[in-house]
Amino acid sequence: MKFGKLTDLTNVNFAFPADAKGTTSMFEKHPSTTSPNVYVGCPIWSNKSWVGTLYPRRTPASKYLTHYARQFNTIELNSTHYSIPNADTIKKWKNQSAIDFKFCPKLPQEISHKLLPVGKAQDFNQVFVKVMEELDEKLGMSFMQLSPYFTPRDIGYLEQYLQEFPSHIPLSIEFRHADWFQQGNFEKVAQLLENYQTAAVITDVAGRRDVLHMRLTTPDLVLRFVGNNLHPTDYQRVDDWVTRIQHWMTLGLRSTYIFIHQPDENEATPELALYFVRQLNEKCGLNIREPQIYRPPVQGSLF
Fold it and tell me: Higher confidence at residue 287 or residue 115?
């Protein structure tokens, strides 16, 4: 994940922010006593470097999803950002994944980057929604990553889109332009998302600490966590998140989707996901299945 990527963390303030004021009031509107559904996963399953560590040795590419879905219970489905899969592909995905697995599709850029021309996004949206409905019970939280050029001045186009988006499809929105996080702009758009029962994606990345806005607009956490190849601060940030999730559970958190990224999606991604799952299970009393990672023995010295 290139967004907010840094090679030098020396001057980064990783202090964990407090909740935004609107988060507490949102929970007061949605009281709940049930335990949340918690999902932890990665942004890809097609990673050859995971063969022999996350997947069995000699696993063919055609079986990557099958083994991924045995390790994790969700996927950030980035491929849908570039093309909409056909019905046969959806059927194959469903058959290759566990019964409790959730696909979280990223809305196509034909939608997310074309909200401004009236009607363009809505026309393409009908095709996307029809295909995603084929996932049935395996459809998790969909999310739209707005163009980095989409600013608070364009909020009317977003509202127009939300008015027409089908309410039975869970939706979350990720904002990237820096102006959204200045001068109260984010609280304005947060109220809009609340009105349409749409979640606000929270991104935790070193180079853009402003997007760590801590404003939930529904009782659902959608977190894109970008590590730094197992730098010590990765673990501290995970610990901070687990503490906050534990607190939000007491307030009525309904669901949690956590997607682990690294600057390069290598072995560090499942390692950090494993740490996240273990901490959630231990601190929050959950029972999320832990990914099983094979670690080859280290060759010792003969002398």
Answer: 287
Q: What is the mean pLDDT of residues 214-222?
A: 98
**Residues 177-204 pLDDT 10s:** 999 999 889 999 999 999 999 999 999 9
| Amino acid at position 2, single letter | K
CA–CA–CA angle 94, 95, 96 (5° rounding): 95
Q: Whose structure tokens read 């929105």?
A: 173
The answer on pLDDT for 301 being more than 50 is: no
Residues 6+ away with beta carbon under 8 Å from 166 = 129
Burial 216-243 (b: 16+ CB within 10 A, else e): bbbbbbbbbbbbbebeeebeebbeebbe
CA–CA distance, 6 with 27 (Å, rounded to integer): 34
User: H or E stretch including 281?
Assistant: helix 268-284
DSSP 38: E
CA distance 91 to 161: 28
Tokens of 166: 């089908």
Residue for token digits 């494993």?
Answer: 274
